[in-house]
Amino acid sequence: MDKKVRVRFAPSPTGGLHLGGVRTVLFNYLFAKHHGGDFILRIEDTDQTRFVPGAEEYIFNCLAWCGLTPDESAIHGGPYGPYRQSERKALYRDYAEQLVAKGLAYYAFDTAEALEAKRKEIPNFQYSHATRLQMKNSLTLSKEETEQLLAAQTPHVIRINMPADETISFTDMIRGEVNFHSALVDDKVLLKADGMPTYHLAVVVDDYLMKITHAFRGEEWLPSAPVHIVLWKHLFGLENMPQWAHLPLILKPDGNGKLSKRDGDRLGFPVFAMDWQDPRTNEKTTGFKERGFLPEAFINMLAMLGWNDGTGQEIFTLEELVKQFSMERVHKGGAKFDYEKAKWFNHEWLKKLPVEQWMPEVKKQFEANNITITDDKKLIEVIELVKDRCSLFSDFVQQASFFFKAPEAIEVTAIQPKWNEQKNLFFAELIRAYELMPLWKHDELEKEFKEIAAVNDIKPGELMLPLRIMLVGGKFGPHVFNIAEIIGKEETIKRMQHTLGMLK
Predict the structure, then answer these.
(1) Which residues pair with 282 in a beta bridge?
(2) Mean pLDDT over residues 65-88, rounded?
(3) Is the pLDDT of residue 436 over 60?
(4) How far apart are CA 285 and CA 202, in angstroms?
(5) Is 261 one of the catalytic residues?
(6) Angle between helices 199-209 and 225-235 (to 10 degrees)
(7) What are phi and psi of 236, to 5 degrees?
(8) 158, 107 in Cβ contact below 8 A?
(9) Is the pTM of this model over 0.90?
(10) Is the pLDDT of residue 404 over 80?
């Protein structure tokens, strides 16, 4: 590529970061790094009515957790700042006025009441070439009237003057040639009454001034493309326009429509990267991080939603993704979100990464469940034993809490139907033997268990489940003698005696 690749993610600080947004970041980041380029984070906060305190900080925290660090941003700095659009407000009006001077945009003085009346009069009203001459704007007013209204500081917006009968085309890196007919596009507002630009003007001006070479965004922005193309053509020339790619949607699990936070709430899975608490409503939404996902797994899972490298490989490190990524391998069609598959990715990464790296997260889960861990070495040993049964950090509490705390409930109903005096005597004898054992190791414990079973003419298989339930409380957990070794002699015997008392 001739020019240095520069891509950007430009979120609005209006709430939690949806996994679709993080995937847009990821594809931008991977493309930039694959080509030795820069990834820019620009905050699009021009709509002050939708601004939510804390949302910008939240976006940066999410990207930090994911390991997707911008090269330039409001926090990281850079040569093309400021990186918040609200801090760039002064420069947008000049570009809007240039368009007005060329007849490519116009002042519109319509009040909210006038617009509402027109919507009632005309079903599906659009402010466009078909209706603009019925409205109060600089196309229908004389030059003198327009100047008088401006001099009086009459509230107004600047709208683009979309051509009435043109085919507007561009080549999408994913979809190929895309065509629009200008008659179907309304005259979007470019500059609002408060002097703030809309997304349409700001994105074009900022992409030009920040020397953006490639712009990747969700396919929901496709209908805006003709407006942006016209702006590029008239302000900066189409030869300076970034190459575009419109990414496929992330769909609901059934494939029927775009995945939303509501779907996550309804189906019981997160759709935000991290926990988000809306300061306006105090509503809290759980994130993938707090649900117990590793950032490596979250990123890996997102990369495979709409992209693959053609080899069938599914587990990728971020470095491998950078090396393999190409926009040509991004699918046109939407990708169904599958939470079970997401957990599978996390399970694979729990096995792949050193336990020491993520053990503190498991420790937090235990402490959140009022189980204090004082021995990290023991915790690592336990994690190694049970990690094959766990997909999320929270699973470790269910699968391993009995190593640190005696089970509160014992599933004696699973033992009672086949319980008899012979088994009762066996366990009484086993307890006496265990009390005398000098070496408390799992293989020695198993050997003693089997020898006493043989002497009593009982098959070991008939005794293993009762022993497991005595130690664990239920029909789960790793090898029972490994459990006994880790919880220790005193605790093993105490739990056996406790359950025997319940069986009498």
Answers:
(1) none
(2) 96
(3) yes
(4) 30
(5) yes
(6) 50
(7) -130, -10
(8) yes
(9) yes
(10) yes
Distance CA 270, CA 261 (A): 8
Residue 316 structure tokens = 């990728």
Q: Report the 10 Å Cβ neighbour count for 7.
A: 24
Q: What is the per-residue pLDDT across 260-297, written as a single tens digit (0 to 9) for each?
A: 988 998 999 999 999 999 998 999 999 999 999 999 99
Determine the angle formed by the axes of helices 442-455 and 460-472, rounding to 10 degrees.
130
User: Residue 210: helix, strand or coil by DSSP?
Assistant: coil
Three-state DSSP at 341 gives: helix
User: For 184-238, what is each residue's pLDDT tens digit?
Assistant: 999 999 999 999 999 999 999 999 999 999 999 999 999 999 999 999 999 999 9
Grade residue 156 by pLDDT with cuts at 50, 70 and 90: very high
Helices (H) and strands (E) in the chain, counts: 20, 13
Pairwise CA distance, residues 154 & 274, whole Å: 44
Is residue 285 helix, strand or coil? strand
Q: Is 36 buried (19+), middle (13-18) or exposed (0-12) by CB count in 10 A?
A: exposed
Distance, in Å, from the CA atom of 164 to the CA atom of 130, rounded to the nearest integer, reads 8
244-261 b/e with 16+ CB inside 10 Å = b? bbbbbbbbbeeeeeebeb
Q: What are phi and psi of 157, to 5 degrees?
A: -120, 165
| Encoded tokens for 208 | 């030009």
Largest distance between two CA atoms of the chain: 112
pLDDT band at residue 477 under the 50/70/90 scheme: very high
pLDDT given at position 371: 94
Catalytic pick among 89, 136, 258, 261: 261
Give dist(CA 354, CA 79) in Å, integer.
39
Query: Pairing state of beta strands 105-108 and 157-160?
Result: antiparallel
8 Å CB contact between 78 and 72: yes
Q: Give the model's confidence band at 1: pLDDT under 50 very low, under 70 low, under 90 confident, else very high.
A: low
Cβ(47)–Cβ(307) below 8 Å? no
Cα separations in angstroms, 486 against 30, 289, 383, 389, 446 = 44, 30, 12, 18, 14
